[in-house]
């Protein structure tokens, strides 16, 4: 029987993590389960840095970005001793289960602990990148899109006033979810992301032709290219310079960076976080172990934690095709 | 073969309608289809109020609320003569098809026209209420949630500073989607919406008990009740007064009203609108008729226009139960 | 010599109050002054509800609406015994001075305490209404304008899509500052506020003529009238109904209400609050008593607390004239 | 007598330029003055690119960023022939006066034209940098602060969750207005701007000491340094790397860039733009020439265009001192 459950946030912070913590604490209280929050991700396990979380501790946090438990990456966990030590901390504190809110990398850490731990472990997908398998969306993704969009809309104002070309770099080293979604929603004239293949200096002409066509045929007064980070050798600034030279028009780069991780979560992230946080506790009570609480087709589901990074999640092919054949032309 | 297509926006305006118009025009251009936009909903058909829409007309509209085609309700269409006259306008203008962006009521109007019209008709669900069957979400719903949430968060600030009880009334005469979603996302202590049953003066005590419990047990410093419009005889102001009297604590009502219809659409609405607008044109080309372009499980699908209002769409029972048993307590 | 200073927030809460508290605490720390925060306004004095405020207590509060010290109105203070009791609390706690953050009403309360108190008292103007004499702007006013504007912009979207007339009611019972400022900034077609004289049913025709002229001459597709609360017998809803009847066009009322008090403070309010909070402490050290820290012509100044409500602050006559003769026509 | 007036926006675009155009057009209409808008700044004069602006052209633009007249820098104007040619265009189009909305550089261009032009010229200060003498604030400055602040608040969320040090680079090559204002409003732990002196690699230790003190003494969980562009050899990214090495803690740079120019103008900018646009027309009617319409101490005033860049505008010394001695410690 579940009496005491630990919770931590790990990896890059994401808007909605606080909403998930709140749902876990409120649901725990309803089931008479004590909730223990560890600080700084897995480091809190190794450093005995924790506190009991009561409903009054999670009042008025649903609307705040960041995480009240702090987050961190934890190198020590990557060693066998680290994982063992973390498991011992869980045993010593008599925790029947642990909830890990984070991305695929954090779930790898949890699985390493599981080898030495007798309790249950469940994951809740919290990362802006939406690159976790087993859930349609991760907590924080919807907010990151709207943050990126807000920047793209502002750049549209100035691009349009000046009739300039802008390159906007968004986060997503391995995944183009944010870039493609924000690019389509921002009405970007072109989108460059990992899923569309790497871009090399010799491919510049494929970028240039549609720019020239757009200005000739459509009289476009602004042109925005949304770019996923690490899409071009030397980065987006180098790409902007190469484009400026090739086109003879000034192209400016704008690197959005860490702004994308913060901010008050939008409704979709708060609802998803509430649902998955509550579901995680309820499934622990029902015996779930080594699973991630995800949402597929609007239904809360369990998915094996070991497979959350197994295959590459696919971006909606319909939108990809539309963007490449219609919007970019 | 589809050569000329009309498009109009009808009923209450919704953020994202412009994004849908843009996708329709861009996709039309890619298929060499002329797009004719009618103004003021179906009135544009009856009044010969229209214009050809080219890609340059839809530049930089994806980010704007409202609708460049204007919207309206159209009483004349409810008479057999009106529907016939509208169909004749479509024939006279040699339109092969009509795209109607609106809610269930607008689709009824379209079906009335269809009885006299030889071309194809397709619907695109645009309404903040999310009360259209055949699609998981309607265009405008996600933005309306975030607008409501922004207000709830602001009221939380002042409720918390003053330790007061606030009732926030949201739109949704027949459907509690906005109210339930914004209520959960706003961390509302209670939610009153049609799906939970009508509230009568004699039911006040069921509201009062949890308020008193919350203050005693949890030391809550603010208490927000989110209420769907028309949930109480005399309205939300009357409900606030009745609660004030019963509790001996000042309860304030805040009626959000038409703010919920406006604003720059959030990413989710722009993406949905882009997808369904493009899909509508592509399906017309493939022969679709009397269908609505919707999205189910992230997949664009067709759904019979005649059935979009047939059954009442159900709100996620998992969240309903969680809200009623855990969050409200 | 100043060693211990109390601080409280009183009256309607205003965005930026937290920024003022932060500046007071940080400046106090720099001067080796202990800062004691009372909760719930003057009630904290009467109920012995207080805490020492250290720099770590005010980290990351500058961006939040509401007030960490809570606010309240305090009826007990209006009796001679109440004021005396509050003064005794200050003496008993060995406070050398008290900082009161609030509006003119709160300063009246402070002056009542001063009759029985041997320490110094200084005021900091915090209210969204901007109706305090001795300062160009009060803390919270700039944010309230932008909150109102955000609503007006959203209503403009839907008014424009529907070609409707909207009345937007803003706060300001005795002062039209918010209404005039938000009306001008929102491009309102008409503005009704106390400074322009009370409106009676028989004056309706003066409102109607410009509406009709605007539609005939300028082809305006939307028409927004911004109204200060209590400007018409029966309220803004009654005014909307009277206008609908007289014009034969549907006019909708939207009552903005308490949303205007909340939200993250805008830059101008955070800077003003920081400046006045710091200045209040520094002036206490220099011996200021029964003064308010205000800002006039961008310069921090002292102003006698007894005169902050003496005369009615005048709204910029240039803008008033422009709005009445040019924008409304 | 003034019958026809030209208007253009020049230099970097700023939120509120549209509000100024609107006020100019509405005020012109009230005085029966034809308003001719030139596109792309001074280029519109040289390229005969202009249109008559009527009140219906400026409906619903007050809330939009950018400029409907487009902006540009104009190299041709820097040659004597260019200035002469521009003056001839004004004569040929029988314009009695020209309104130039822009910054100090744009006013230099206007003065060059004035040597060959028989009509009147008036300037309206529109630039986010607030580096124009003769006005307390320029149009666009208040919005740029709030855009920067929005980014700083978001970075605070993630800095706080991760306990990291962030450097946020803001615009302002020659002036620290944006950096100082946004830094104070964002609660930045340190501010680096031109007014505080250039920073060299050997000065790093002055930055490092307070960082270390803050973490030891105050237990700060996040640390934000706001930096004006061009404050360090190699840029803010190089500064972040140098700090990381020196502190042994990861420091991240975030370059805000062109986002700061866009966005819907805040209330303060819309009101200032409305006031100065209206005032510019009224003063032209009264005979003003080679003057800028500014606002000092909330009063609209004229200031010689030739002196708008004469001396360096001073940042509020009170806030500078407070930031350097109290907030940074």
From TrEMBL, chains A, B, C, D:
EC identifiers of the protein: 2.7.1.11
Pathway: Carbohydrate degradation; glycolysis; D-glyceraldehyde 3-phosphate and glycerone phosphate from D-glucose: step 3/4
Enzyme class: transferase
One GO location term (cellular component): 6-phosphofructokinase complex
InterPro entries referenced in this protein's UniProt entry, alphabetically: ATP_PFK (IPR022953), ATP_PFK_prok-type (IPR012003), Phosphofructokinase_CS (IPR015912), Phosphofructokinase_dom (IPR000023), PKF_sf (IPR035966)
GO biological process: canonical glycolysis; fructose 1,6-bisphosphate metabolic process; fructose 6-phosphate metabolic process
Protein localization: Cytoplasm
The entry's keywords: Allosteric enzyme, ATP-binding, Cytoplasm, Glycolysis, Kinase, Magnesium, Metal-binding, Nucleotide-binding, Transferase
Reactions listed under catalytic activity: beta-D-fructose 6-phosphate + ATP = beta-D-fructose 1,6-bisphosphate + ADP + H(+)
Cofactor(s) needed by this chain: Mg(2+)
Any one GO MF annotation of this record: monosaccharide binding
Source species, domain of life: Bacteria
UniProt main location, coarse: cytoplasm
Domain Phosphofructokinase: 4-283
Family statement drawn from the similarity comment of this UniProt entry: Belongs to the phosphofructokinase type A (PFKA) family.
Entry-linked PANTHER family: ATP-DEPENDENT 6-PHOSPHOFRUCTOKINASE, PHOSPHOFRUCTOKINASE
Protein name from the UniProt record: 6-phosphofructokinase
Organism from which the protein derives: Rheinheimera pacifica
């Amino acid at each position: 029987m579940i009496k005491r459950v630990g919770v931590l946030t790990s990896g890059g912070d994401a808007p909605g993590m606080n909403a998930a913590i709140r749902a876990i604490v409120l649901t725990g209280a309803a089931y008479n389960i004590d909730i223990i929050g560890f600080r700084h991700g897995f480091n809190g396990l190794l450093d005995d840095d924790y506190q009991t979380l009561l409903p009054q501790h999670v009042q008025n946090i649903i609307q705040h970005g960041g995480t009240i438990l702090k987050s961190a990456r934890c190198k020590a966990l990557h060693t066998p001793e680290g994982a063992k030590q973390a498991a011992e901390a869980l045993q010593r504190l008599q925790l029947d289960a642990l909830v890990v809110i984070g991305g695929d990398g954090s779930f790898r850490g949890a699985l390493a602990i599981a080898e030495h731990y007798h309790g249950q472990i469940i994951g809740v997908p919290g990362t802006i990148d939406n690159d976790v398998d087993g859930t349609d969306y991760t907590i924080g993704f919807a907010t990151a899109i709207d943050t990126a969009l807000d920047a793209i809309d502002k750049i549209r104002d100035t691009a349009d006033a000046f009739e300039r070309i802008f390159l906007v770099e968004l986060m997503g080293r391995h995944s183009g979810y944010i870039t493609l979604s924000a690019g389509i929603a921002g009405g970007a004239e072109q989108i460059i992301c990992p899923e569309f293949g790497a871009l090399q200096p010799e491919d510049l002409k494929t970028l240039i032709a549609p720019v020239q066509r757009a200005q000739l045929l459509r009289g476009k007064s602004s042109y925005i290219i949304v770019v996923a980070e690490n899409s071009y050798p030397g980065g987006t600034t180098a790409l902007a310079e190469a484009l400026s030279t090739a086109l003879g028009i000034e192209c400016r780069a704008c690197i959005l960076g860490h702004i994308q991780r913060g901010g008050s979560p939008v409704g979709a992230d708060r609802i998803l976080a509430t649902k998955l946080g509550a579901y995680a506790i309820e499934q622990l009570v029902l015996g779930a172990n080594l699973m991630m609480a995800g949402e597929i087709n609007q239904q809360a589901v369990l998915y094996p934690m070991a497979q959350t990074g197994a295959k590459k999640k696919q971006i909606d092919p319909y939108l990809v095709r539309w963007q490449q054949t219609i919007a970019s032309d």
